[in-house]
Write a structure and sequence with these properties.
alpha/beta, 5 strands
């Protein structure tokens, strides 16, 4: 899977999973500048029409060892400089153990690997589901089927 295919997969999943909540999902939207002054293009841009809130998702997929490890610290720093809330969605087996630890420990990164056409949350999508739920205030996504005490 290429990075673009992964971003399309994430966009389709978010649209299917949360479209009924008023989310509109867009691909490759320009938003300001990066921390090194380049034009920034957000991989997946999500807008909740009822509340006019937005969320940016940068997508990182690495299926083999490569230079992505060097890009992750920059991507996390650049995400912090973004003038809106967002996260990095990531998947693949090509990340080093150190970078996987960095991503897993970050409150701004979420492992996400949905299947094509998936609508329901699974262990492979839960982290991104939870970041979106917290941002948009969808507490039922976090509570799921639990009953209050």
């Amino acid at each position: 899977m290429t990075g673009g295919e992964y971003a399309n997969l994430i966009a389709c999943y978010v649209s299917r999973r949360f479209g009924s909540r008023g989310l509109k999902v867009y691909r490759e939207i320009n938003v300001g500048k990066t921390i090194i002054g380049k034009d920034r293009r957000i991989d997946v841009f999500v807008v909740c029409e009822p509340t006019n809130q937005a969320f940016a998702i940068e997508c990182k997929f690495q299926d083999s060892q490569g230079t992505v490890d060097e890009k992750i610290p920059y991507a996390l720093d650049d995400l912090q400089a973004l003038p809106m809330t967002g996260c990095i969605a990531y998947a693949g087996v090509g990340f080093s153990a150190g970078v996987l630890h960095m991503l897993a420990a970050s409150p701004h990164a979420a492992f996400c690997l949905p299947t094509m056409g998936q609508i329901e949350s699974t262990n492979d999508t839960r982290e991104l589901d939870h970041l979106l739920a917290v941002h948009f205030g969808w507490w039922d996504v976090l509570i799921e089927k639990k009953r209050p005490v």
